[in-house]
Amino acid sequence: MTCAEFLERYTDFRDGLITAPRELRRFTRHLAQCASCRRYDAALRRGVRALQTAQTIEPSPAFRRQLDARLARERQVGAHRQVPARAGIAAALLVAAALAMVGLEGVRRPHVAQAPVLPRVPFPRPVVQAGVPFVSFQDPRASVFAGNPAPDGSALVEPASAGR
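Given the sequence above, the corresponding structure tokens read:
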């Protein structure tokens, strides 16, 4: 048994709630081997003995009347007592702060940087160059040929090196 387990279950052991012989042997064996837990057990046994030998205190006959009268006075004072002024002020400040936050955040719009809107541009037409096996896209604002383009939208462009 470890000291942690002993201390955790000590009250059950001391109160006689542990009755299994095996568990009782574990507790007594640990007490025999561990000086720290033995001191703890001795201190608690002395305390329990001192409480058991103490005389019972009997309150005076007037005690009950005085207690009842004092409790009645406390109830009356508590019934008439208003919420402290500080609590009211704190509640008012809390409500004011909440309203201010809702007002500021609800009305104010955050500044968002916006880029200028670009004009709509149609998708560029593919241009196939005769001498180079490369497909590029023509700027739709520029015209290569003045005439009817191919039905698929492509146009044949001869490079300047074709030698005309």
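Residues 124 and 140 are 5 Å apart (CA to CA). Try to locate this feature in the token string yourself.
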